[in-house]
Amino acid sequence: MSKTTLAIIAGVSAAAGSAATAALYASRSQRKDSPSPTVTSTPTSTYPSPSPPAPLPIPLRKDLTPPVNPTGVFQYGFPGPVNDLHPTPSTTSSFDRRTRNPAWVAEHITSASINANNADRRHSVFVEDETVPEKFRARLHDYFRSGYDRGHQVPAADAKWSQDALDKTFLLTNMCPQVGEGFNRDYWAHFEDFCRRLTNHYPSVRIVTGPLYLPKRDHEDGKWRVSYEVIGNPPNVSVPTHFYKVIFAEDGKTGGDVSLGAFVLPNARIDNDKPLQSFEVPIEAIERASGLEFAGKLPVQRRKRLCEQVTCSLLVRDYADRQKNLMGSPPPKK
């Protein structure tokens, strides 16, 4: 997956570069192999060619008042884009009004927050987020008979320390359309479980999750295109092609080390035998694909690679077992 994601981001430029290189070497070869024609020159009288006239300098007028005012359009309103930033007790998110999905959702988990059991999922219901203007909201009926799950970006199981915190994870601004069987209810859920188990090793774990819409090469003409389904009636909510997680596992010390993990998974059925590390990518790959920046203020000397500190592997358990023991066994340290 790492190679695929990097190819998606860099493939087009690489292909263009290799084609240009081939053309360059081909032209050099042709020039080298072709015999040079014999040219017979006759002496001629030479005269210096006249120089083109120098362009006249355009006088600069600092006192010139522009005849137009493009920013005057703001008197009618700011077009955007507007990212609805929405903090809740369990999440902080930025909503993308165009796709009706979050651009990213951030959470913070600790051993204490995961082990707390002060809430019951049975009392929570999916709700539309009224903090988003009505015409830009994802709606409950958009998902009706769509064939997709309302996929949590921050899982409900991470917010059982408070009923209010748990309820807020059911806002549609924390949801994206996800393939259910084989992904949201399986591999993705095991991945969320892996993140929770990191709190057995790290006192503080921060996670940013969100959708991606990645290009795919057309088999017929070889061109790259972004194509995704839109659900709802009328079509309203975009179906992401992929999802990412960026993990910051903190050692708890002021100015201490942070183990970084970045993963991109396709929104599709994934076999549980697929190694998690096959979906690991450089954090810069997610930044380029999403237009977001995650660790710009984290010095390089404080960064560690997560999968070099712990074994990045899944513990496959069915739903009932996961609910009984949300922590599970910690990922083995390396």
Strand order in space, largest sheet = 1-2-3-6-11-12-13
Order of SSEs: HEEEHEHEHHEEEEEEEHEHH
| Outline type | globular
The low-confidence runs, each spanning 5 or more residues with pLDDT under 50, are 10-41
End-to-end separation in angstroms reads 23 Å
The biggest beta sheet reads: 7 strands, mixed
The tally of beta strands, per DSSP, is 13
Helix content: 10-25%
Query: In percent, how much strand structure appears in the residues?
Result: 15-25%
Count the helices. How many?
8
Class by alpha and beta content? alpha+beta
Mean pLDDT: 87
Alpha-carbon Rg, integer? 28 Å
Notes on the structure:
The chain is α+β, with helices and mostly antiparallel strands. It has eight helices and 13 strands. The strands form four sheets. A seven-stranded mixed beta sheet has the order 1-2-3-6-11-12-13, sandwiched between helices. A two-stranded antiparallel ribbon has the order 4-5. The chain has a two-stranded antiparallel ribbon with strand order 7-8. The two termini are 23 Å apart. 30% of the residues are buried. Mean pLDDT is 87; it is low at 10-41.
SSE layout and pairing:
Layout: H1 2-33, E1 83-87, E2 92-96, E3 101-109, H2 111-115, E4 149-152, H3 163-168, E5 175-178, H4 180-184, H5 187-197, E6 204-212, E7 216-217, E8 224-225, E9 230-231, E10 237-238, E11 242-250, E12 258-266, H6 283-290, E13 303-305, H7 306-309, H8 319-324
Parallel strand pairs: 12-13
Antiparallel strand pairs: 1-2, 2-3, 3-6, 4-5, 6-11, 7-8, 9-10, 11-12
